[in-house]
Structures are given as C-alpha cells and as structure tokens.
Fold Acyltransferase 3 domain-containing protein.
Amino acid sequence: MVTKLVPAGREIWLDGLRGIAAVIVVWFHMTAGKLATPYRSFWDLPASDNRQLIQVLPFRIFFSGPGMVDIFFVVSGYSISIGLIKFRHEGSMARFYQRLTSSVVRRMFRLCFPVAIMMLGSHALYYTGLYTIPFKEGTGCAGAHPWESPIPHVQCLARSLVSIINVENIQNLTLNDHFWTIPVEIRGSMKVYLTLLGLSNVRKTARILIIGLLCVRSWWNGTPEFMAFFAGVLYAELSASVSFGQHEILSPLLSSRRHNWRLSPSKTVLNRLSSLSIYLAFLLGIYLLCLPIRIQSEGTIDANFPPDWFFLEWCPPLLWWNTETTMRTWHTFGAILVVGKEPRLDWARYDLRKATSTTTSAHKEADAEKGEKASETRSIKQRSHALDASTERLLCRPLVEEDWPEYHKMLQEEQTMINAGVGPMLFPRAARAYFDSQREDWASVGIFVLNMDDDGAEGEFIGTGGVYWSKDRLPEVCYVLKQKFWGKGRATEFLNGFLELWWSMPRINIDMYVETKFLDAGERGVIPERLTAPIKVARGDSQNVVKKAGFSERGEITIYDEKYILFRLLSPK
C-alpha cells in the first residue's frame, strides 16, 4: 500500500487568512479619508457618484479594513488557546499549568517588544523632524518638538510604553493611534488565559456553554473585540474535541464492509442542506465584514448608516451602544462566521494554505508545491473483533473497565508519565477521561504479563501501547510501561509483537494533511505507508527500543517547543 502526502504545517489556513487581513488593513489606512467612492454604499446618492463595481461584493472586501481587525481578534483567541486545550485533552494537567504560566509571560513579550521597537523608531523620526503623521486632539506628545530638548520626547516615549502595556482600558498616549489594538490584544489574551484556567477541570458541555455565555455577555456589554476572542476559544474547544475524538469517529467507519454502505435519500438531502448552510453562513459573514462605513475627510465615522445596514430596523442596536459599537459588533459577527466556516470549505482552506506556503522559505515552498488532499492508507479493524496479540512473555488486548484501578496507578507514576510526554495525572476526573478515551480507541491495547505458572493465563497489567493519530501528523507508535518493568526487554518485545499484528491488518485509503517536518526532504506525491516515533532527544533508551524494531532515524524536529528525534518505519508490504 502507498500513502500520498501533502505537507501542511500548523494551522496554515489561519496564517493565510491573517496575512490577507493584514494587507487589507494596511490598504485601508492608506486610503481611508483619501478615496471616497470605495467607502460609500452602492446605494448612496447621488447615483452618478456611486453605482461603481468596487462598491459591491466581492470587490468591496479590499476596503473592509475595520472588519479585518476583528478577524485578528478571533484568530488570536483560537491560536493562543488551541495548544493549551490540547494539553488539557491529553490529561497532562501539570504540563497544562506549566504551559499556561509560560504563555502569559511569552504573550506579553511577543506583543510588546515589537511595538516598543516601532515606538522608539517613531520617536527618533519625530525628533529629527521626519515624522509627519498629524495627531488627533488629545494625542501626540505635548511639548515635544523636533530638534529641541529631548526630555519631552523621552517622557512621551515612557508614557507611550505604559499606555500600551495596559490590561485595564485603552489609553492612547502614543504618536500613532493605530497601536490601539495592542492593549486590546493584551486584555483579550489575559481574559482567555483566565478562562482556560478557571474551566480547566470543568466538564466539556459546561465548559462550552460557559464560553458561549461569555460571548453573549461581551456582546451585551458592547465589547465586540472580546466577543471575538471568546468565539476563537469556543472554536478551539470544538476543534480540539473533534481532533482528539478523530480515532473514535473513524473506528466505526473503518469497516471491511464499508464499500457496501449506501446513504439513504433522506441522509443525502440532509447532507446537501448542511453543506448549503455552511456556504450561506460563510457568505453572510463576508457580507457583514464588507458593510460600508462612511469615512469623512478628517477620518471620522459618519453616524448615519448606509442603506446596506437595512437589517438594523429588525435588529436595532442596544440602547447603550454608540455608532462605532454598533458598526464593530456587526463586523465582528462577520469575522466570527468567516473564521468559523472557512475550515469547512475545502477550496477556501486549500487556497489559503497554498497562498501561505508561497511566502515561506524556499525549503517549505518546495515541500508545499502540491495542494490536493492527501490520501493515506490506514489499517482497519472492526470493533466486533478484538485487537489481540501475544508474545513469549506478554499478552496484548483492548482495555476493559476492570483494568481501571491498575491503569489509574500507572497514570499517577510521575516519571512514567513525564517520559510519556504528559506528566502525572493527579486529578481523578482527568485520569478517568484519559482512560475512557484509550479504552474506546480501537488502535490502543493494554499490555499484560503472561503467567507461565498458570498455563499462560493473563497476569499483571504493566502498561499500554498502540498507534496514535493527530490531525496533522503521521501515525505514531507509542507505549507506556510501569516503571518497575523498565529495562527488562518488555518494551522491545511488545513493539515487535504489536507491529507484526499491525502490518497484517487490511487497509483503506483516507484523506489527511501532514506537517512538513514529518516528511523527508524531497518527498513528493505517492510514497510508502509508514509509522513514526518522535522521541525526546534525551531518551536514549526509548530510541534503542524503536531501533531494535526496525525504525530508522530521520532527524531532529520540534514539537511544543521541545526537541525530538523522529524515527520512521516503512510498511513491509
């Protein structure tokens, strides 16, 4: 069997969307107040000055700068939470808390350091008389003048830095009022981190409901920027749930009788209606993003909404909202719909992935030149048949409820779980959720000692192993053994026995995307099926185990900011 792979990297479609939004925002700042027609409605009067092609969809998207800013906020909420949510889903609460605290510090540096450099450059230009951007009333640097005393300039720079690092409110004391988004990013990020911390041990349904209520509350408060952040977190929660439940969804589908299945007419109609609703929601999001706002010559917003905002008669703004809040709220709704529906539109997601790949380094550009979906061969196993294997000293079988007490003990072994990459699971609810996910995983088995004194009967539970999938990585072989069984050849024996069973199972093709770092340089098109094993650089013992099973070393990679050695085993077929 063969595998056809396409490099995917991280959430590349998000990078592409963010890049397009950034270009539109820059274009907006360059043209707002200077070009009149694109920022008027197609239906504005007099008709002779309007009715231009640039005023209708989809061309008006190039002048929808305010709405693009809201896309940044939705994407930020998603991107800063998805990694933490994955740690929590894996049951690694210790690593979750560690990553959460480090993310708070790194986020502040990541947002503030580049802005501090730009501010320093702006003040240097201002002092030398080269900064010509006019100031709005109440902004700028009072008392600071080019080529005069540098003290007011230094004081203004200090005020600018303090006003940017502000988690309480938006205080614009800078030379450039476009920096207002940085305090919003800081405040929104801190709200996201606090939400993830407070809901870290809450059930999934309650967690999603609470985040949804936070979105509604932000809408009610007239703070659409934070509604965007919480919407991003909500998308991350739903995405992680789908990603970590992927193997459970696949297992009933991967049946040897799959080719005999047929959709009933009613299911076909429902599927078509579902697809149609996705397209309609996406188009509605684009429409809301492109709602025009009348920019005056001095750069202010006209309080009278153009005819395109006709729906305000049926959905009037809340009494405590002003014109700008109303405008930004509906633009935010558009951003939420676009970011939420775009991943489900394969053509849009691929176009953004391909567009992003052309802006990366030459190596990544070469790796991403193919753009169609990847088709991977995976083993299939009917749930009605047990995934059993045995070796000279070990028995492997699916986990059952009776295995929970011993499994729970293993999850609490500190060094065992640190070596497994997740950390000890001290919270019973998280440990139980992890056990349940492994018990339902058709590609995971428990490992038991064979009791030779009792005709080879099942003995003590010593660990678990199998094959694991993530949505943008190649299938990975994995195992975890209790600490007292280390160094006795059990891992090598399990891996060899399990692989023999794995390669003997029937195959089907499915579509997938794969990160570039999991591929060999120069791999293109159809390549052989393989298993991988990313192992930490310091774990020489585990590296020796996979080498004995036939895995070959493919180089060093980085996963969640840690260094790993990637091992690969090609299918013998």
Remarks:
- The chain is about 45% helix and 15% strand.
